[in-house]
């Protein structure tokens, strides 16, 4: 049975043999308790990621050693379930030539229209009137090198917005949520501009923390330093290039970036110390959590259960009807 998209695989397919075309995004050779080699794969297409295992690694060792990450493959495998999560046991696997597949069909992508998102960035950029704050955005967002990455990178590895244009979509959501709260609570114009700037920049360093799609995972500097430190560090470097940058604005913007995770145990080295930083923190949470829930519910479409399985990062199930 050929499956068009990974998202179509359901519990109804358990113990059935299926065929899929997908992209390999990660591979790890492991040992069983009896010291037999097997290989764990993560495969994906535009609809979903799924785990796959090949227990006959030694028989296919030459193929796997020549297989590159981010390469398209055709897999014949048996659908199984482990701890409530569907996975594939590979019975046969072969490479697929690039000429035979549209590689874009194998890369998860935002369903927001890209030109509309870019217009959204411009909309919020135009609301910043203070020259040194506007220059900071010019240097960090709207230079060609940064802009292309900012508009294409994911915002996370797996929890939320982990797709092409994901960072751009996440930042726009944060800007919208933050702006709504700020105008509702009648923040001053200067507070509003600071909030817009820190919303633009809070996850900026994810263009340094993550590998560029279709590669997945962290860069070495991302693993060692993380996006919060790198983001604040790079922002301070750019601030220092701008003549007469206001010292109060510098401290408030940097605190917003450093504190946007909201708690020390969540990776922020300091807590939010301003109203603007607190709004940013909650806007960031709202964007990430809602996207995480909606993406998870989409993955579970077609299942007859009233509730989803438990979403691990939220700690609960979600009602699917409505």
Automatic annotation (TrEMBL):
One of its GO terms (molecular function) is nucleic acid binding. It comes from the Bacteria. CDD domains: HDc, YhaM_OBF_like. Keywords: Hydrolase. InterPro entries: HD/PDEase_dom, HD_domain, NA-bd_OB-fold, NA-bd_OB_tRNA, YhaM_exoribonuc/phosphodiest. GO terms for biological process: rRNA 3'-end processing. Residues 163-298 form the HD/PDEase domain. Pfam families: HD (PF01966), tRNA_anti-codon (PF01336). This is 3'-5' exoribonuclease.
């Amino acid at each position: 049975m050929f499956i068009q998209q990974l998202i179509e695989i359901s519990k109804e397919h358990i113990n059935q043999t299926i065929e899929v075309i997908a992209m390999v995004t990660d591979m790890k050779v492991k040992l069983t308790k009896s010291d037999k080699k097997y290989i764990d794969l993560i495969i994906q297409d535009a609809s979903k990621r799924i785990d796959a295992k090949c227990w006959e690694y030694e028989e296919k060792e030459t193929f796997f050693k020549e297989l590159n990450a981010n390469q398209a493959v055709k897999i014949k495998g048996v659908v199984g379930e482990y701890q409530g999560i569907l996975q594939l046991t590979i019975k046969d696997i072969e490479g697929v030539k690039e000429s035979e597949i549209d590689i874009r069909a194998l890369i998860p992508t935002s369903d927001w229209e890209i030109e509309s998102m870019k217009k959204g960035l411009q909309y919020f950029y135009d609301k910043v009137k203070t020259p040194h704050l506007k220059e900071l955005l010019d240097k960090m967002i709207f230079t060609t090198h940064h802009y292309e990455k900012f508009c294409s990178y994911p915002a996370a590895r797996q929890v939320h917005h982990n797709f092409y244009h994901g960072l751009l979509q996440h930042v726009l959501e944060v800007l919208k949520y933050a702006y709504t709260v700020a105008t509702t609570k009648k923040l001053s114009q200067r507070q509003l501009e600071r909030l817009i700037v820190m919303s633009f920049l809070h996850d900026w360093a994810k263009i340094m923390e993550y590998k560029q799609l279709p590669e997945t995972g962290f860069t070495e500097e991302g693993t060692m330093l993380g996006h919060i430190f790198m983001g604040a560090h790079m922002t301070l470097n750019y601030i220092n290039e701008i003549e007469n940058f206001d010292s109060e604005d510098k401290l408030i913007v940097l605190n917003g970036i450093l504190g946007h995770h909201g708690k020390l145990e969540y990776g922020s080295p300091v807590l939010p110390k301003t109203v603007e930083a607190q709004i940013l923190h909650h806007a960031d949470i709202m964007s990430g959590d809602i996207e995480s829930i909606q993406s998870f519910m989409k993955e579970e479409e077609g299942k007859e259960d009233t509730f989803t399985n438990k979403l691990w990062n939220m700690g609960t199930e979600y009602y699917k009807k409505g």
